[in-house]
Write a structure and sequence with these properties.
GIY-YIG endonuclease; 19 strands; eight-stranded mixed β-sheet; 528 residues; Nucleotidyltransferase, domain 5
């Protein structure tokens, strides 16, 4: 039974709405500048299938008012993390970067910082990070504790423990001079975790200690120091990678298919793609690109520049919220040209590949270049092999998923054209081919390719028009590898290294080879 929206009083304030099922379980959380206007829109008749399914489950709606849209944005994000409603965007990759904490104690300890589901840190003290992609594992807490003589005991004992005798702690629990030095050790550790120049001073000191230990033939001690240096170098490298100027940017592309959004991102460091992820969410209710980005950056490091394939709704609001969260100005850009646009194009090509379930990248390029409605999985190519008035024949090759389908090849004797009229011959074989397919109720190709220029293309189009067909049709002129398309004056020139052009050339050359071979065999038989 559909929920009767007229039975509830909906406020017109900004805020969030929590849709519940018959068991009072929250199934969707959304935000709105005007709650009444937004919630009522769900019950209109022109909603997509997945939104209709959501509405079928609604048994009750709860509202939480906020002072403005910004507060609604933040509250919605936190509530989604808390309740994880089935119809909301839920990122599959929720792993977080690692943070470390120096505790707020008389003699502080070094710990992994724990967080709640909404990202709030637990415990008191100073927090450091993020340490991304396992850098905290390379630079283990144990190594840091040992290097800086940081205690590990939960409660300070009255007498020194085993860690003191192992040389991992100076024993501030018992020795006065160790108590005096402890704060210096903590300050040095903080500087290293912040990535300050103190790291270089500390590593220089360790190198001296390693050399001394080696000279004294204390090889185990030297090895431990060497391992510490390697791990410290790893931390420094990752800190440089994360904070280098003009490299703090992340790219996102979004594509839509069957009421589902596919998002792919590239993280760039020093102009190099270092990481990539794919995400999917249903286009239900307020699920949007803008909502996705806000959810994503609630658990990921926020860059200065976010490059997107399309401008998000609430762009200014999103920039403001992310800037406040990051502590610096964040800009969302939809690049229109240059290297940034090239990266976005690359992401969109990958999304098309996902949607095509692994289709040939060259065919995807053809779809983009020719502005086709679908990927040209089946291409039929035509050519005329003309050796004098008595030896003119037509040939056709058939390519499926970018590869020859030789059982689909066809050859034609010219029946209605005399003389050397290639245009009329192309017109004849095109008409014969597709009239037969129509009579047999056979599947038509996704793209027709003609070997020739604008004249051959026009002849083919005329025949298709006479049959009432609107199959995409182009021609490829061999001299300059120019592609002629209908209703366009200038030809398209695809760079020679592109796989899209290579597919067209392969089909054209196969058709020509097939036709010449047939023509040659006919002439040999005539001579005999």
């Amino acid at each position: 039974m559909t929920f009767d929206i007229l039975k509830i009083n909906i406020p017109q304030n900004p805020g969030i709405y929590l849709m519940k099922d018959s068991e009072q379980k929250i199934i969707y959380i959304g935000k709105a500048k005007n709650l009444k206007k937004r919630v009522k829109s769900y019950f209109l008749k022109n909603q997509n299938y997945k939104t209709q399914k959501l509405v079928e489950y609604i048994s009750d709606i709860e509202f939480v008012l906020t002072d403005n849209e910004s507060e609604a944005f933040l509250l919605e994000s936190n509530m989604i993390k808390k309740y994880r409603p089935r119809f909301n965007i839920e990122l599959k990759d929720q792993q977080r970067d690692t943070y470390l904490r120096i505790s707020d104690e008389k003699y502080p300890r070094l710990l992994v910082a724990r967080r709640t589901r909404n990202g709030k840190f637990l415990g008191k003290g100073n927090f450091f990070g993020p340490f991304t992609q396992g850098s905290s594992k390379l630079l283990t807490i144990g190594t840091l504790r040992k290097s800086f003589q940081i205690r590990i005991c939960k409660q300070l004992p009255k007498k020194v423990c085993l860690e003191y005798h192992l040389g991992n702690c100076e024993g501030p629990c018992e020795f006065i001079d160790a108590k005096d030095r402890y704060s210096k050790h903590v300050s040095a550790l903080e500087d290293v975790l912040k990535g300050k120049n103190q790291t270089n001073i500390f590593t220089s000191k360790l190198k001296e200690e390693m050399k001394l230990a080696s000279d004294l033939q204390q090889f185990e001690r030297a090895k431990d120091i060497r391992d510490t240096l390697i791990r410290l170098e790893s931390l420094q490298t990752k800190q440089k990678m994360e904070y280098v100027e003009n490299s703090d940017e992340e790219y996102f592309g979004i594509g839509y298919k069957d009421q589902t959004a596919s998002v792919m991102n590239f993280r760039m460091i020093n102009g190099v793609i270092r990481d990539s992820d794919k995400f999917f969410f249903d286009l239900v209710g307020d699920n949007s690109f803008s909502n996705f980005l806000f959810q994503y950056y609630s658990t990921h490091k926020i860059p200065k520049f976010i490059l997107t394939s399309e401008l998000t709704e609430n762009k200014n609001l999103l920039e403001s919220l992310l800037s406040e969260q990051a502590g610096f100005s964040v800009e969302i850009i939809c690049p229109q040209h240059g290297k940034r646009k090239d990266i976005i194009n690359l992401i969109m090509k990958n999304i098309l590949l996902i949607h095509s379930k692994g289709g040939d990248p060259g065919l995807i390029e053809l779809k983009e270049i020719l502005h086709l409605s679908s990927i040209p999985s089946v291409i039929e190519c035509f050519d005329i092999s003309n050796h004098g008035e008595d030896f003119a024949f037509g040939s056709m090759s058939r390519f499926v998923d970018g590869l020859p389908n030789k059982s689909g090849y066809r050859k034609f004797k010219i029946n209605t054209v005399s003389g050397r009229d290639d245009f009329a011959m192309i017109g004849e074989i095109i008409k014969r081919r597709y009239l037969r397919l129509l009579d047999e109720h056979s599947l038509l190709p996704d793209l027709i390719l003609i070997d020739g220029g604008k004249g051959q293309l026009n002849a083919a189009l005329k025949s298709l028009q006479s049959l009432g067909l609107k199959i995409p049709c182009i021609s490829l002129a061999k001299k300059n590898e120019e592609i002629f398309v209908p209703n366009q004056r200038n030809p398209i020139v695809i760079p020679k290294d592109k796989s899209s052009l290579k597919i067209l050339q392969y089909a054209r050359d196969e058709t020509h080879r097939f036709g010449v071979t047939y023509n040659r065999n006919i002439r040999k038989n005539q001579i005999k």
